[in-house]
Design goal:
Rossmann fold, 9 helices
Length: 291
């Protein structure tokens, strides 16, 4: 039986991927970060009749102590065939107002967390001379959007690291893949999103833009995809049903978006984004200092 590790397995893409991999015949080590999530995971796994094939472990990818404990779990496994770096969160807000510690929190989870877990499994994969690492990126790792600078920057960093990692591991017959979902109905934009308390948008010069972005999100939410599509894609990569392509964009309209991003000049792209969120000029005098 092949073994897979899925981080951030308590909900969303992670939980669905855990279930799909288990049904595909994998023994899955699936991780959660906070207490109550373990109970919900067990309930869902029992409902899906895969609880016998899933080992649930606590892991905070930003905690060195937690990573050390998880290292023992990794060492106890006979082999590791697949690692899915799914654990992530999103910081919302505008660059001027998002404090530096929030940017650090974003990168600790989405970038350094993925690197840390990968470093734990690589010795075993190298000894096997086989393995697959699937990094959960985002369309935001290829396309920036106002109000998501921290999240987008972290996913761009994950993409760059993944490119280097894929080349480094090729001689050891370890494959690296990136999955780049568009907009899906998952909880990263609810419980998984952190907007710093310091950002008071009622009195912010970015308030109008934030309201426009919220309207765009609300209007487009009806077209969000079913997250099972992403879990199915990850499982197909893990089982070899997909080829050895490096990047896998997934979601409605994603292919067209990326095509035009690469094809058209930046000034045209910028104009299209501004039009989408009806971004007009701000009356700077409303926010100028009076002292």
């Amino acid at each position: 039986m092949k073994t897979a590790i899925v981080t951030g397995g308590s909900s969303g893409f992670g939980l669905l991927t855990t279930i799909k991999l288990a049904k595909a015949g994998f023994k899955v080590v699936s991780t959660y970060r906070t207490g109550g999530n373990e109970v919900r995971m067990k309930q869902e796994l029992e409902l899906q009749q895969v609880s016998d094939q899933v080992i649930i472990k606590k892991l905070d990818v930003t905690s060195q102590e937690s990573l050390q404990h998880f290292h023992q779990v990794v060492d106890s496994l006979e082999r590791i065939d697949v690692l899915v770096n799914n654990a992530g969160m999103a910081v919302g807000g505008f660059s001027e107002e998002v404090p530096l510690h929030a940017y650090r929190t974003q990168f600790e989870t989405n970038v350094f967390g993925a690197i840390a877990v990968t470093q734990l499994v690589l010795p075993k994969m190298r000894q096997q001379t086989s393995g697959k690492i699937i990094n959960m990126s985002s369309i935001s790792g290829l396309v920036g959007f106002p109000g998501l600078s921290a999240y987008s920057a972290s996913k761009h960093a994950l993409e760059g690291w993944s490119e280097s990692l894929r080349l480094e591991l090729a001689p050891f017959h370890i494959d690296v893949f990136i999955v780049e979902p568009g907009s899906y109905h998952t909880n990263i934009w609810t419980t998984g999103t952190y907007i710093p308390a310091e950002a008071d948008y009622d009195s912010s010069p970015y308030n109008d833009m934030m309201n426009q972005i919220k309207k765009v999100i609300e209007k487009s939410s009806a077209n969000y995809g079913d997250p099972i599509e992403v879990a199915t894609l990850v499982t197909d990569i893990a089982t070899g049903k997909k080829g050895t392509t490096f990047r896998y964009p997934v979601g409605k309209g994603i292919g067209l978006t990326l095509f035009f991003k690469k094809l058209i000049p930046w000034k045209w792209w910028e104009k299209a984004v501004k039009k989408q969120i009806k971004m007009g000029e701000t009356d700077a005098s409303r926010y100028s200092r009076k002292d």
